[in-house]
Design goal:
The chain is mainly alpha-helical and 74 residues long. It is built from 4 helices and 2 strands; from the N terminus they run ββαααα.
Length: 74
């Protein structure tokens, strides 16, 4: 099943960014169901300013590890 929505974060599609994150931590599969289930949280966090993220104790690079923290020890 292909997602209809093509979201970009900077110059990178959000789905590509998520795929690269999972590849970088050595996950051997593409967890599309997990991605869809948490996409709203990722979008909300990506839409925040860097200052807003800092107030939450996050950097932009920490968004995906934060969203998937219960599944993967990053």
């Amino acid at each position: 099943m292909r997602d209809n929505v093509q979201l970009r974060v900077g110059h990178t599609r959000l789905n590509t960014k998520i795929d690269r994150y999972f590849a970088s931590i050595g996950l051997g599969f593409n967890p599309s169901a997990l991605r869809r289930a948490r996409l709203r949280e990722i979008i909300v966090l990506e839409a925040q300013t860097d200052e807003d993220l800092a107030q939450m104790g996050l950097t932009r690079d920490q968004i995906l590890p934060h969203v998937f923290r219960d599944l993967i020890a990053a």
